[in-house]
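Give me a protein, keeping tokens residue-aligned:
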Amino acid sequence: MKKTIGYFVAIENEEVLGAGGGGMMSETEGELYVLYLDPSRRNEGIGTLLLEAITRQQKEEFQAEKQWVSVQKGNQKGVPFYEAKGFVYESEQPVYGNETGEYRSLRYSRFI
């Protein structure tokens, strides 16, 4: 049961500051598909607000109990962000669509 449940967009004065989206992987497990911020607007809490909105939707509308995210190995902004939000490293795997390449993805999860 994979289900995309939409995207949230942070806008200020008609300017997009960030966006995030997710879905459900199973009856009780959600996935954060993407979380992007304008690099010049980092450290303002925008990413946290987007993650909280996605998490709230997964919990309230779909009764998610666990949430997953993939982060590119070496992402020095994403890894500390997700770890600070309670995500725990689970595994390393090839990046989707690049199974034989050098890019690796780190899988994290947390109970919500």
